[in-house]
Every structure is written in structure tokens, then in C-alpha cells.
What we know:
The protein is α/β, with parallel strands linked by helices. It has two domains: about 1-30, no CATH class; about 35-350, Aldolase class I (TIM Barrel, Alpha-Beta Barrel). It is built from eleven helices and twelve strands. The protein has helices at about 25-30, 75-85, 105-115, 135-140, 155-160, 165-180, 200-210, 235-240, 310-315, 320-330, 350; strands at about 40-45, 90-95, 120-125, 145-150, 180-190, 210-215, 245-250, 260-265, 270-275, 285-290, 295, 305. It has a twelve-stranded mixed sheet with strand order 7-8-9-6-5-4-3-2-1-10-11-12. Helix 2 crosses helix 10. The chain is globular and about 60 Å long. The two termini are about 30 Å apart. Bound molecules: S-adenosylmethionine and iron/sulfur cluster (SF4). Iron/sulfur cluster binds near residues 54, 57, 96, 126 and 148.
Amino acid sequence: MGQTAGPGTPAPGAGAPAGPDGTFDAVAAGLYDPSRRRVDYLRISITDRCNERCVYCMPQGLQDWKEREEILTFEEILSVVRLAVRLGFRKFRVTGGEPLVRRDAGDFLRRLGAIEGVQSLGLSTNGTLLAPLAEEIRAAGVQSINISLDTLEAESYRRLTRWDLSSCLEGIAAARRAGFPSLKLNAVLMRGVNDGQIVPLIRFAREQGAVLRFIELMPVSSLEVLTRENFLPVEEAMTRIREVMSLEPAEVRLGHGPAIYYRTGEGGIIGFIGAMTNLHFCESCNKVRLTADGRIRPCLGSHLEFDLRTALRSGQGEAAVEEVFRAAIGLKPAEHEFRDQYRPGRSMTAIGG
Ligand code: SAM
Ligand code: SF4
């Protein structure tokens, strides 16, 4: 499935092969997408279920759980990872839904971490089920753990997630004790909801030795989650922070995501994920997603998906699965469609955050 570059497309970068006529050839290019980005990061959703009900992710009525047989088994996911490694993927992150609601998630992570060629393994979790599992997950080879925390106020945490703040804080404490090389806290910015928590979250993260990242609200799951009233751009968060402490660009690149990092006058590092307002947001995107029901989704903000599960279960062997991977990378959109009246098609938990 050759993909020809359009007019004005820059020449292929080092290592991105061209077809016989000199044009970009996605098949030959392997892990290079049509925008010349090297794609070597696979984000794997292992479940579409969650114990929390975050208002921006799983609004009421949006719990379209998949049947068990629709969800990839751990064996299937591990076989996909082995193939992905052979194709050149090196970075993996396990997410959901809430990955820790799936039984034997710790053992699965251990098996994933043991696959030769998996250089970087991360986990995204809401932290509430983490405390008893943190040691096991660290021992499994998970280096980087991202925990969602939008507020430090118990009442507001309950309103936002329908769960207990204390269990999340216990998860963070356990992650610290387990000694993950990278511990990040993620907060979604919402005007009138948690904007009073910006500075408290910064100070809390610093005390925990964690990097805090502020994420702009995105129109995933349903259109209602993002309104003119509740959207708070990262620029405005930065202005508010500067009223209290200085903020200077930090010459660091942490992890593989699109966050831009700053150092505060109080010594902490903060990342800003301006998915909606940063026009360069997609330029360095290096990932595709594997959904819990076995589809490859090359971009969170585009409905394009490729059915890997059918290929996996077809009995046609690895070549069929590889074909799906290459097709997905070959058609990875240059940028997301969130600014173009994007209408979400399925919940964030189904896609994998
Ligand atoms: N359950 C885990 C968690 O909460 O971290 C992993 C999955 S969750 C879908 C991954 C990330 O997506 C979380 O940091 C969450 O805050 C973020 N997220 C969910 N819905 C979002 C939205 N509408 N806009 C921006 N971020 C969102
Ligand atoms: Fe669950 Fe994470 Fe979505 Fe919240 S953001 S509902 S914790 S999957």
C-alpha cells in the first residue's frame, strides 16, 4: 500500500526511504508516517472499563462496555507487542480505561516488560487501585508511571471522578516508595472546576518529587465535556502561575509525549499539554494506539481506525497483522481534527487515553 507524498512535502528525513520514482513510500519507510514522523511508540489500552467516572472522560450514559470476547486477551496483546518490536517500536505505555481494574494486570506488565526490545514501559493510571500493586508493577519493569490528579479537595475529587481522593493519594505514596524513575501527575484544566487548584497541585507535586502536567480539555467521549465556559487554555494557566511564582522554559525533554516543560521559581518542573491551542502540537507525534478491542488508531483526534483484531484472529499469521500496522502508520493524519468541529465517536475509555 504505497503512499505518495503530496506537493510541497519536504524531502524524506534520514532513514526514510523513497519509492522507485523518488517519492515517499510508506511501506518502504516502515515506521515513518507520511509526515516523516518516526512512529515507535505504542499506547496500549487493556480495558475499556474503569472504577472512576470522570466527568470529562466517562460522562453519564457513556458506558458502552465491550463484550469480553471483543477485548484482546493478554496473549494477543503480547503477540502484537512482539511484532511491534520487530517493526521497530521501542516505547510502550499501558492505559485504559483504568488498566488496574483488569485482573492480573501486574503479571501482564511483567510479561510485557520482559519482551526483548521493549526499551521503555509506562503505565497511566488513576492511582486509586495502585497502592497494593505498586511494588509488583515496579518490579515488572515499568519505569514511568503517570497518575491522574485534578484536585486536592476531597469533595471536588468526588464530584469529578465519583471516587475517593484518599485512595489516589495512597497510590501516589506507594508509587514513591516503589521508586519509579519517572513519576508524573496529570491534571486536566477546567475553568470554574479546578482552576483554583493550579498552584496547590504544583506545590503538592513538588513535595512528592513528581512532575506535574496540565492538560487542556479535549472534545473526546462526548461534545458536552468541552464548552466555551469550562475550557481553560494552558497559556492562561501559565499567566495565573506567574502571578504567584516565576516560570521559565526548562531545557528538558521528559518522556515521549507532546508536553512542553517549564521550571517554576519554587523548583518544580511543570509540563503543559496544549492539545487545543498549540498549533505545533502534532509535529512531533510519534505514537499510535492499540484500543482494548484491537484496533489501531493512529491519532486520538481522528476517527480513522484499523482492524487489527480480525487480522490477529484470522489465522493468516503475522503478515496480516503487520499489514494493518503499516496501513495505520501509512495513513497517520498529519494533525488531529479537534479544532475542526470534531464530533467524538466513542468514549476515551474505549480508545485508550
Ligand atoms: N484511567 C487512567 C487515568 O485516568 O490516568 C488512564 C486512562 S485516562 C483516559 C488517560 C488520561 O486521559 C488521563 O490523564 C485523563 O485525565 C485524560 N483525559 C480523559 N478525558 C480527557 C479529556 N476530555 N480531555 C483531556 N484529557 C482527558
Ligand atoms: Fe477512568 Fe481515567 Fe477516564 Fe477517569 S480519565 S474515567 S480514571 S479512564
